[in-house]
Design goal:
By secondary structure, this protein is mainly α. It is 78% helix and 0% strand. It contains 5 helices and no strands. Helix 1 runs antiparallel to helix 3. The longest helix has 23 residues. The N and C termini lie close together (10 Å).
């Protein structure tokens, strides 16, 4: 569940980051051009996914700790996206390895 919430936060922030005027479209994931062309849809879907992930984290961890955990994950994902996207390190293999390892650790530890 924590991996799914983190994935939703990553996707939602990446959609919102793609609509930013300061972001240079890199094109590694393939959705950067689409988010640049469809800014309103990307913003609304990014905000909807962000609210959904906040609701899921509050459901999973409780109101107080869920909100706190949501913002911690959001700050971590946002800093990673802002730092790694211009270096073209965010691609499908990198994301697949990271989230597969996270899912395996979540299954083994919890």
């Amino acid at each position: 569940m924590a991996t799914g919430i983190s994935l939703l936060i990553f996707i939602s922030f990446y959609l919102l980051y793609g609509t930013s005027k300061k972001m240079a479209p890199v094109g590694e994931l393939g959705i950067e051009k689409w988010t640049g062309d469809h800014k309103k849809i990307s913003q609304y879907s990014g905000l909807a996914l962000m609210i959904l992930s906040l609701g899921l984290s509050c459901f999973y961890w409780g109101i107080g700790s869920g909100t706190f955990t949501f913002f911690i994950i959001l700050m971590t994902m946002a800093s990673l996206i802002v730092l790694l996207a211009p270096l073209r390190l965010i691609n499908y293999t990198f994301l697949g390895i990271i989230f597969a390892c996270s899912f395996i650790f979540e299954i083994l530890l919890f």
